Amino acid sequence: MVIILLATLNSEPIGTNDYWLSKFILCHLKEIHKYNISDLAKACCVSNSSVSRFCRKIGFQNFNELKLQFFQYTNTAEKKFFYPGVQCSNFKDSYIDGIIENLLLLKESICVTDLHRLAEDIVNYPNVAAFGSLHSQSAVLNFQTDLLSSGIVMDTRICFQEQLEYMEQADSNTLIVLFSRGGSHLKRFLLHHLQLSKRKRPKIVMITANKNLASNKYIDQFIYYDEKEGFTAYPYAVEAIKGVLVLEVYRLVNKKNYKFAKMIHRLQRK
User: What is the C-alpha to C-alpha distance for residues 156 and 176, in angstroms, rounded to an integer?
Assistant: First the structure.
C-alpha cells in the first residue's frame, strides 16, 4: 500500500487532488485508520467524491477498503535497516562488506544462460516493458536509459495502476520484465484479478530472490538470484543484473548489425 501511495505521489503533478491525498496519507500512516472520508476530504481541502475517485484510481472500491490497510501499520525502520553487523562501531565497513557478500552470492547463484535468453528476447520482441517498485523501479529507469543506447526503446510505468493497465492490454508481441526481490509485485497484480489467462497474453519474466514463485503459472521465465536478507541486499543486486543484461543486449545488437552489414556488403559486390 505504501509503495502504491509513493508511486502516486511521484507521478502526480504537484498541487493536484491525488498528490495532496497521497501525501497526507503518507504523512499520517499511523493515524489514517481513525479518519472517515469527510475528515480526510476536509484535511486535504477536497470533496468527498475526490477521495472516492482517488481510492478507485489506486485499486480500492472505497475509502473504507483503503483505510483497512492501515489498522496494523507500524514503523518498519528498525526491520528495514537491519543487517548483520549493523551494531558494529565501524558500521561503514560492515555495511560495505555486507554489500560485497551479497554481490558474491548473486555471482554464484544467477544463471548466465537465463540472462542471455532474456537479452535475446529484449532484442527480438516488438514491444518490451519492465516494472518494479521502490528500489527496483530506480533500476528499471536506469535499464530504460541504458537500453536506448543499443536502440531498444523500452516502456515502463511508475504508477501501479498504470502498470496494471499496461499488463492487461498487452498481447503476445510484448515482453514484460518484473524486477521484484520478494515477489510482492506479482502478488499485487494477482490480487487485482489481473487477466493473464487470455490466449494472446504477454510473455512475463520474473527476476526475484523468492524461490517460491518458480512454479507460478503466470511466469513464463523465472530468473532467481540468492541473497542474504537485510539492508545490504538492495538495490545493488538488481542494479548488477540490469548491468549484465544491458551489456548482453549491446553485444547481441552489435553482432546482429555486423551480420546485416556483412550481408549488404556481399550483395553490393554482386
Answer: 9
Count other Cβ atoms within 10 Å, centred on residue 4: 20
pLDDT tens digit string along 189-227?
A: 665 555 655 668 899 999 999 898 888 888 899 999 999
The HSE-up count of residue 244 (CA atoms within 13 Å, CB side) is 17
Neighbours of 87 (CB within 10 A): 9
Q: What are the backbone dihedrals phi and psi of residue 192, each rounded to the nearest 5 degrees, phi first?
A: -90, 20
What phi and psi, each to the nearest 5 degrees, are found at residue 53?
A: -65, -40
Backbone angles phi, psi at 127, to 5 degrees: -125, 130
CB distance 127 to 156 below 8 Å: no
Residue 104 to residue 232: CA distance in whole angstroms = 12
Distances (CA, A) of 32 to 27, 50, 60, 63: 9, 17, 16, 11
Residues 155 and 164: their CA atoms lie apart, in Å, by 13
Question: Which cell numbers in the block locate residue 166?
Answer: 499496461
The model's pLDDT over 67-112, given as tens digits with 9 standing for 90+, comes to 887 765 555 666 677 777 777 778 889 889 999 999 999 999 999 9
The terminus-to-terminus CA distance of the chain in angstroms comes to: 64
